[in-house]
Every structure is written in structure tokens, then in C-alpha cells.
Amino acid sequence: MSDFQLYFSLGREHILDVNGYDHILFVIALSAVYLATDWKKVLVLVTAFTIGHSVTLAMVALDVFRVNSSVVEFLIPVTIFITAVCNIWKRDQYISTDRSRLNYYFALFFGLIHGMGFSNYLKALLGKETSIVTQLFAFNIGLEVGQVIIVVGFMGLGYLMNKYINVSRRDWILAISSAVAGVAITLMIDTKFW
């Protein structure tokens, strides 16, 4: 297996890992306010997350700065909680005007924090390699593909719930975001930060 294939697989598995479901929750929280017809907006959204994620991955891997993993492990569910609560708070605005730009900022900025969560592990994998461009590129392409898989599945489920069970967009946003916020609270409580 080539380096590209290896790191591509690591990126894809990183985002799709059900044991590390915090990233899945974040992508779902970001996507909850969109309809299936908004797929282009959601693609830009997950790409913004990947950009933020890749910046901190690169910076930590290149020893630009170090991260305290227990602080980051606490901040990741905080980002999920903030995104979900914002969805609940602004749900009527999202429905009536589709002003969901805030999620783009969340994706980019919070992607920086999420990138720190995996950076120490990636740094250990890279070892003392001098050139990490190919590995980081492959990892982030894998991450992007994994996010697209999550979004397609989630938005497909939302479409089916709306079309066949008549779940309104407002109720969908409220139910999904409330569930995500609840899980995020549990994750915050369970971190070793306390």
C-alpha cells in the first residue's frame, strides 16, 4: 500500500470511526439545518471543516505548537454543543431565510479544534519524516470523502423522514440538534478535563 493510500484510508476511517463519533456528531450538527437540495452548500460547509482541520494537523505535525490533549478532548464536544444549540436557537431563522452562514464559520473555526484532536496521533505516525505534504493531503482527502459519506447518509435520511413520515424541517432541526447537544453534554462530562 502506498503512503497516499495509507493516509487516505486513515483520514476516511478517522471521520467514519463509530468509536470516535464526535466528528460524526459535529458533521451532523452542521448539516442539520440544510435540505437535500442544499447539497452544494453542505459540500462547501464540510470543505471548510476540512480546511480548518488540516491547518492544525499540519501545524502540530510540524511542531509549530503543541496541544494539551485533555483540553482539546473537552473542547471538541463543546464545539458540537455550541453548534447544536445554535441550530435550536436559530431554527426558525434558518427555515424562513436560510441564513445559515454561521455554520460556515463554525465549520472553519471549530475544524481547527477538531484537527488538534487527531494531531498528536498523526504526528506519531509520521515520525521524523521531513516531507509530510503527501501524507497530509491524502489524509485530508480521505477526511473529506468520509464527511461526504456522512452527509449523503444523513441528508438522505432527512429527505426520507420529510417525504414519507412528514417530519417538518423545524421538527427535524429541533430533534437532531437536541439529540446531538445531549450527547455532547455527556462527552463533556466524561472527559478527563475535570
UniProtKB/TrEMBL annotation:
Q: What InterPro entries would the database entry show?
A: Put_HupE_UreJ
Keyword terms, alphabetized:
Membrane, Transmembrane, Transmembrane helix
Manganese as a keyword? no
- Which residue ranges does UniProt annotate as crossing the membrane? 20-37, 42-62, 74-90, 102-122, 137-160, 172-189
Domain of life where this protein originates: Bacteria
Tell me what this protein is called.
Answer: HupE/UreJ family protein
- Per the UniProt record, the source organism is Reichenbachiella carrageenanivorans
